[in-house]
């Protein structure tokens, strides 16, 4: 089984509740089932025969996980509870027990794996569907890319495999990734920018797991604009940056914070600690499509922690978190790219 690759997490998390307060879903639902401990205990039960994927409640719990990586990041042993949860989903899919809504979404995602490229140059930017859906983000990225790269290629289109992977559809994820890599490599670009942190994580971490490689060097937006030494004429002012799940908990990259420093932002501390996630299930990529009520609870949890919800300038790296926090949390949110573009 796929979960056998995460033996340490499986065997140790089931006895440990040290990170339960960092499970965003557990917090908003007030449920222990939504913590790494109980997920591991339930998965261990599939070995002993006390639990099986025939139990729809168990399967639902595995698909509720927000995959923020906060528990793993703050685990003293770094046990990979995220990898275990995704592996469990892959086992559920292989057993033919994926919930119908998950199977439908996966089919839709797999069918969307096609892209087009416009523009020319040796630099590309990938606007995935989530990023492309936000016209303010797209306008900001256009301004910044013109400054940083001059001419560039814009790639738009559907699933590249990340969402399929987190839903447990590994062969479909690999097939989408292979198509995407072949598409980008044929463009002969030397650099490619991923404004969506999930897509960036896929490029720098997941592709290698699938034995794939982009010819172009992959960048997050923050590193790209820092490396290209984009000049900013204005200062960003006072803001609350919500650390991105992929950058802080997966890739461990501080480029967004470095760009904010360059922008002269007066960064204020949001919430009560720097361990929790405030990104409304960003790591789960499509949680908003599978369970919008749950995402609403996550956004409201964040809104309760804002000092002045109407006035505070909240900043996220990606469009997913921005969208949920605006829609359900009624917060004043911009992406880092929007803040940077306003400083040009
Ligand atoms: S990830 Fe670490 S802290 Fe969390 S339950 Fe597992 S062993 Fe405990």
Question: Can you lay out the helices and strands and say which pair or pack?
Answer:
Elements: H1 7-13, H2 24-29, H3 36-48, H4 56-64, H5 70-73, H6 81-94, H7 100-111, E1 115-119, E2 123-127, H8 129-132, H9 135-149, E3 153-157, H10 162-166, H11 170-186, E4 191-194, H12 197-209, E5 217-220, H13 221-227, E6 238-241, H14 245-251, H15 255-262, E7 266-267, H16 287-290, H17 292-303, E8 314-316, H18 319-327, E9 333-335, H19 336-342
Parallel strand pairs: 2-3, 2-4, 4-5, 6-7, 6-8, 8-9
Antiparallel strand pairs: 1-3
Helix pairs in contact: 1-3, 3-6, 9-19, 12-14, 13-15, 17-18
Bound molecules: iron/sulfur cluster (SF4).
Can you offer a commentary on this structure?
Helices cover 50% and strands 10% of the residues. The protein has 344 residues and is of the alpha/beta class. Strands 1-3-2-4-5 form a five-stranded mixed β-sheet. Strands 7-6-8-9 form a four-stranded parallel β-sheet, with helices on both faces. Helix 3 packs across helix 6 (81-94). The chain is globular. The mean pLDDT is 97. Bound molecules: iron/sulfur cluster.
């Amino acid at each position: 089984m796929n979960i056998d690759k995460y033996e340490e997490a499986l065997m140790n998390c089931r006895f440990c509740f040290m990170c339960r307060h960092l499970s965003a879903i557990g917090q908003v639902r007030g449920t222990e089932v939504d913590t790494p401990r109980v997920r591991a205990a339930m998965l261990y039960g599939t070995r002993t025969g006390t639990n099986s994927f025939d139990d729809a409640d168990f399967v639902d719990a595995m698909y509720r996980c927000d995959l923020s990586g906060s528990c793993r990041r703050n685990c003293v042993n770094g046990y990979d509870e995220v990898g275990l949860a995704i592996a469990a989903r892959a086992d559920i899919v292989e057993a033919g027990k994926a919930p119908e809504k998950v199977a439908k979404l996966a089919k839709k995602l797999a069918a969307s794996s096609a892209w087009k490229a416009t523009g020319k140059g040796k630099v590309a930017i990938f606007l995935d569907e989530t990023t492309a859906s936000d016209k303010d983000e797209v306008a900001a990225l256009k301004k910044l890319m013109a400054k940083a790269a001059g001419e560039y290629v814009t790639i738009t289109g559907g699933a590249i495999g990340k969402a399929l992977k987190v839903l447990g559809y590994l062969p479909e994820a690999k097939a989408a990734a292979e198509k995407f890599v072949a598409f980008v490599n044929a463009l002969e670009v030397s650099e490619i920018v991923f404004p969506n942190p999930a897509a960036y994580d896929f490029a720098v971490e997941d592709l290698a797991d699938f034995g794939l490689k982009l010819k172009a060097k992959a960048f997050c937006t923050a590193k790209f604009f820092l490396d290209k030494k984009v000049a900013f004429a204005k200062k960003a002012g006072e803001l609350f940056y919500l650390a991105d799940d992929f950058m802080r908990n997966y890739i461990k990259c501080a480029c967004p914070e470095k760009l904010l420093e360059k922008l002269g932002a007066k960064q204020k501390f949001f919430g009560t600690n720097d361990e929790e996630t405030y990104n409304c299930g960003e790591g789960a990529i499509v949680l908003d499509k599978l369970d919008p009520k749950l995402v609403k609870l996550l956004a409201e949890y964040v809104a309760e922690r804002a000092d002045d919800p109407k006035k505070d300038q909240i900043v996220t790296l990606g469009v997913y978190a921005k969208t949920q926090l605006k829609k359900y949390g009624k917060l004043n949110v911009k992406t880092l790219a929007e803040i940077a573009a306003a400083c040009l």
